Amino acid sequence: MAKIGINIATGSLQQKEMIVGIDLGTTNSLVAIIHPESRKPVVLKEHDGNALVPSVIHFGESGIITIGNEARDNLITEPQNTIFSVKRLMGKSYNDVREYADFFTYKVIDDDTESLVKVQVGDKFYSPIDLSALILKELKTRAEHILKTSVTKAVITVPAYFNDAQRQATRDAGRLAGLDVLRIVNEPTAASLAYGLGLDKEEVKTIAVYDLGGGTFDISVLRISGGIFEVLSTHGDTYLGGDDFDRAIVQHWSASLGITKDELSLHKNLLQELRMIAEKAKKYLSSNNSFTGTVAGQEVELTKRELEQLAQTFIEKTIQCCQHALKDAQLTTAGIDEIIMVGGSTRMPLVKKMVTDFFGKHVHDTLNPDEVVALGAAVQADILAGNNKDFLLLDITPLSLGIETMGGLMDVLIPRNSKIPSRAARQYTTQKDGQGQIRISVYQGERDLVKDNRKLAEFSLKGIPGMPAGFPKVEISFLVNADGILVVKAKELRSGVEQSIEVKPQYGLTDEEVERMLLDSITHAREDMQMRSLTEARTEASQLLYMTRQFIEKNSSFITAAELCDTRHGMFELENLLENGDKDQVQAAIEKLNEISRPFAERLMDQAIAVAMKGKQL
Ligand code: ADP
Ligand code: MG
Question: Structure pTM?
Answer without folding.
Answer: 0.76
